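Journal club side-thread
Mid-discussion, someone asked how the predicted structure for our own chain would compare to the paper's figures. Pasting it here so we can look after the session.
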Amino acid sequence: MRRMIIGLAACVVAGLSGVTVVRAEQAAPMSTAAPAVPGSNSTADHSKFEILQQDFKSGPEVTAACLSCHTEASDQVMHSIHWTWSYDNKATGQTLGKRNVINAFCGNVASNEPRCTSCHTGYGWEDMRAPPPAQPARVDCLACHASPDLYSKLDNAAGRPPLAPVPEGAKTITGAKAVAVNLSKAAQSVGPPQRENCGQCHFYGGGGDNVKHGDLSSALVTPDKSVDVHMAADGQNFTCETCHVSDKHVFAGSRYNVTAADDGGTGLPGMRRDVATCESCHGARPHPATLIGMKLNDHADRVACQTCHIPEFARGGVATKTFWDWSTAGKLKDGKPYAEEGFTQSDGKHLHTYLSTKGNFKWGENVVPYYAWFNGQVEYTTADQTIDPTKRVEINRIAGSASDPHSRIWPFKRMDGRQAYDSKRDKLVYNHVYGPTTTTAFWTNFDWSKSIKAAMDYVGEPYSGEYGFVDTYMYWPITHMVAPADQALDCQQCHAKDGRLADLAGFYMPGRDPYGPGGLLGMLLLAAAGLGVAGHALIRLLTRGKGGRHD
């Protein structure tokens, strides 16, 4: 009750007095900043190593040279999710990871490997039915450690870089024109990973810049402070690894098993190795000991930091895909595939709203998140689970509730989609989309029957031969693009009848909900306390002239 009354008072004070709310970014400055230039904090200049000055003919040759000094690196990488693309979630009992799940974007990796595994941190994984290559030299050291200006991967070669002669029209995984990589120069440029190293895969997943996550785009390579206070050069100038710290090439942070509520204490990046949370640096009570600050700190056990400090995602001029309808794919003009570009993002780039290969799309910038209770656990709808096609299917379900002390209100990108399913067995299906030389790839032949059957046969799953399309949702936790303090949400944006949390159920929110029994009792107690003070004052006034003492 005390918390509720203080909360009402704090919101009233903030709303009426124009008090500037002090946010987490105004806390003591971080002492750890990312190096401005890769290798600037290193004791080794790799351009001076004779073994790296040879004329390399392939990526594995470079890795073999790396392993002559970094003897355990490949073994470490091969034990990470970046290599296995598989994750056993002990909390839910599911085996997840890119290798196993069906998603709401391109659908699945299996049967589309040369294209999808172009982002694998290795060379030549061409069959999801087998584990990734076991040879240590097949690990790609350069993808993470070479200067991104000197190294890239082809978009359809299972992780291999473009080497001379580069095929006409070849593109990299970022969609740029592919040029021949000089492996010797790339090897000599190695250093700590830069944002662009991580971004070549993580920014461009799902078919383009910021398509998938919404809060991970090329805008984070050199962002303004208004886009991300942590990554901006005039902010903290973080690299990805500042927060996603690594231990033996295993990185903190997971979208399958998220640390939604971190009460494990604080420590600067580089100290705690198991999490990548706001609280690991800012603590659970990051605001100053003012009336408003204390109330904001009081929210920390119910509200994720990201909810207030990332008011919108897809900022910085790069839009994110918000809707993907596969059911309309396959239409042709004069027997040929075509594209429509009906959206122009704020940097002037025109984006497709229809592709014969992929269907219809919608895009958004400065998108207000979807909010939900979240305890960090994510469960996927896999191909062996029965779905109800009369209802919208959640490709991944986020767990949590207001009654769960481990849950917090979190922001999400909720991807709206429509994708194929087995209409007789009521199960999601795999699809074979990439394969220029096949007769079954949808992007070549535009035949769903052949595409689905080929993919289901490939993974060994039963298929009735009948398909339809079902509406889907897919959820992506929003945790990047932290805004400056003066752009964080204020009380009224949530504590209002039509506020951001208007549809979030399971709890009472002052300002949004009619007074329930608890709220009414609180107001009655507050009124009773006021009447008590007023009554006492009245008695003193009435007795003052009658010899009463007022000790």
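Post-session note: The two ends are 32 Å apart (CA to CA).
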